[in-house]
Amino acid sequence: MSLSRIERDRNRFRDIVRGRLREDLRRYLSTSELLGRRGERAISIPVPQIELPRLRFGDNNAGGGSGQAAGEAAQGEARAGQGGGQAGEGEGSHLYEVEVELEELARMLGEELELPSIEARGRSQLVTETLRWRGIANQGPASLRHFRRTWRNALRREIASGSYDPHAPRITPLHEDERFRFCKPQSRPQSSAVIFHIMDVSGSMGREQKEIVRIKAFWIDTWLRSQYKNLEVVYIVHDAVAKEVDQDSFFHLRESGGTKISSAYELCLQKIREQYPPEDWNIYPFHYSDGDNWSARDTERCIGLLREELIPRVNQFCYGQVKSAYGSGQFKKDLDGALPGTDRLVTANVNDRDGIREAIRAFLGRGR
Fold it and tell me: Can you give the pLDDT at residue 96?
């Protein structure tokens, strides 16, 4: 009875946490609060401490009445929440760190943005082997002995030999009766995907633009990891020259040179040819820039690479244009004008953090 009650309380607490997350999800989509809290399979999310109401005996008229006391308490909490004023000796508000599985967070994202599940391309599956404790062997360590199988074999042997006495049943397993569990490899096809995060790191892309890219990349990764068991991420930065970097460098590197977008597209194409053939991989390039390119000729080169090389190889190519004070925003106009109605090309403007939500919906809303 007590265990059942504990489980009910636990499930109720989970429902409260999920409800709070759903309420705050719209805010999380435009802030970086969760970015540093992600683990391999779960994310740590702060939630306010849940206090149950308690009755306290005393004189209601003391201290100006319960209504006044409640009002003063509420005002005190409001002042504490503002963080201003002098330091006090009162107890501050508390937050609990609650771990939520990334699959659950992705499910909430899908419900919030009404995202369809992704259908992997036909042959883009890798066969992986998993070990499952489904086999039975005649030999093995004592720690893996299968008691039921061992006892059953001993019972059968004694009945067959006539030594079994139903009025005084006593089963003594012998060595030949023993059975042990062992691992059997099992082949299982798994859809595999690779994400290419490509970003302009020239001088016109400031800190705020990179923070917007970081938030978008977090939610894109969270969703695609829920759709593919085997997912790899490649980070490419470019100014006038493109290069592959690690995750930390991707979000913090800043160069002072010009912008040549075709260098990044050429490097992405090279990686696809050498490591990620479309027959085995679902491919998702995401390019982030403020729309400046060094020349119209290079833009023509980019359009040619997209039309002839990249788009035929990928599930979907996404271009997110982040507004900056120094960017012209011309590149998105050129793409939309040169490749109108291209099914696997998605472009989106992100003028500020409030535009992150709709950009993510545009990128992930087609179920590719």
Answer: 59
- One domain for residues 232 and 296: yes
Task: Find the length of the chain.
Answer: 368
Q: Are residues 41 and 162 in the same domain?
A: no
DSSP string for 97-136: EEEEEHHHHHHHHHHHHTPPPP---TT-EEEEEEEEEEEE
Residue 98's Cβ-side half-sphere holds a number of Cα atoms within 13 Å equal to 20
CB count within 10 Å of CB 257 equals: 13
Torsion sign over Cα 112, 114, 117, 119: negative
Rounded Cα distance between 295 and 259, Å, is 9
pTM (2 d.p.): 0.68
What is the average per-residue pLDDT within 12-27?
72
Contact in structure between 28 and 47 (CB atoms under 8 Å):
no
Task: Report whether 235 contacts 197 (CB < 8 A).
Answer: yes
pLDDT tens, residue by residue, 30-63? 887 777 666 666 777 666 555 555 666 666 665 5
pLDDT in tens, 314-347: 999 999 999 988 888 899 999 999 999 899 999 9
Pair 205, 244: CB distance under 8 Å? no
Whether residue 156 sits in one domain with residue 108:
no
pLDDT attached to residue 81 = 45
The conformation of residue 53, written as its DSSP 8-state character, comes to P
| 182 and 195 inside one domain | no
Range of the domain at 135: 127-186
| CA 48/CA 50 separation, integer angstroms | 6
